[in-house]
Amino acid sequence: MFRAVLPGQGELKKTLLSSDMIRIECLGVLFDLDGVLIDSNPAVDRVWTDWAIEHGFDPVEVIRRAHGRPSMTTILEYVSEEIAGRENRELERREIADIEGIVPMPGALNLLNTIPAERWAIVTSGTYDLATTRIKAAGLPTPKNLITSSDIIHGKPNPEPYIKGAALLGFPASDCVVVEDAGAGVRAGKAAGARVIGVRGPTESEETLKAAGADWIVDSCADVAAKPNAAQNNLVLLIRAE
Q1: What is the pTM of this model?
Q2: Which residue from 71, 76, 146, 179 has the least number of CB within 10 angstroms?
C-alpha cells in the first residue's frame, strides 16, 4: 500500500508520477483532529461512557452522537439547558485529564511534515484547551493555524468551522481540501465549498461518509502525499482512494 513517507527526491518523484494515484491541486488543507491526525478514541470512549452511565443513558448511543461534534451539542440532546454548561465543563475537565493512549494516526506526522505550515490548519470540534492538550500528547507539530469550538458560534455540520479555517490560511474554502472522519465534519466541509477526503474509522461507516458527500475515501493519512507546487504556487495532493 502507498505510504506518505517521502525520504528522498527520487522516491518523491516516483510517487508523484504513480499512475494509480488521484491528483488534486489545492491551496490549503484543513484537517479534523480526532480520528484523522490523532487516535483519541480510547480516551473519548472512557470519558463519555462514564458520563452516560452516571446519567442513565446508553453509552454506545451517546458516543455515536458525540463523534465529530462540539460536546455541548450532544449534551443538550440529553440534559436541560440549565445544567448543560456545568456538564460540559465537567466533561472537558475529564477529557483534558485523560490522555492515556493518545497517539498519532498512521501517516499523520509524515503528511504534516510535507506541507508548509502556512498551508494547513487543524479544525476541531473540541475546545482550545482540549485540542492543544491532545496535540501535545500525540507529539504532533504545533499548528500555526487552529480553529476550535472556542472560535466559533455554530459547530459542525455547520460550515462555519471550515470557512474560518480556510480564512486563517488566507484562502476561500473552495480552494482547500478537508480531511474528515465524521459525517458531520464531511457535511461541514462540503457546505463550506471544499472538496473532502473521508477517512474510514471505527465510529462512522464508509456509507455514512459517502452519504455526507465525501469526494474520496481513504484508510488514513498514510494514503495521502503532498508536495508544494512552486510553478503554480499551490499544493499537489496524491491520494490512494478506493
Answers
A1: 0.85
A2: 76
Instruction: Judge whether 50 counts as a catalytic residue.
Output: no
Catalytic residue among 20, 32, 39, 181: 32
Q: Which residues contact 237 (CB under 8 A, 6 or more apart)?
A: 23, 24, 25, 26, 29, 177, 224, 225, 226
C-alpha to C-alpha distances, 42 to 38, 99, 102, 160, 239, nearest whole angstrom: 11, 9, 8, 28, 28
pLDDT in tens, 50-76: 999 999 999 999 998 887 788 899 999
Residue 48 three-state SS: helix
Active-site residue, selected from the candidate residues 34, 39, 181, 215: 34
d(CA 91, CA 236): 39
Closest to 197 (Cα-Cα) out of 155, 153, 156, 238: 238
The DSSP 8-state label assigned to residue 204 in this structure reads S
DSSP state of 32: -
Domain at 9-39+102-239, CATH homologous superfamily: HAD superfamily/HAD-like (3.40.50.1000)
Please identify every stretch of the chain with a pLDDT value under 70, giving residue numbers as ranges.
Answer: 1-19, 242
Domains of the chain, residue spans: 9-39+102-239, 41-97
Answer whether the bond into residue 157 is a cis peptide, omega within 30°. yes
182: cell is 465524521
Alpha carbon distance 116, 112 (integer Å): 8
**Dist. CA 71–CA 125, nearest whole Å:** 8
Q: Residue 41's closest CA among 94, 99, 81, 127?
A: 99
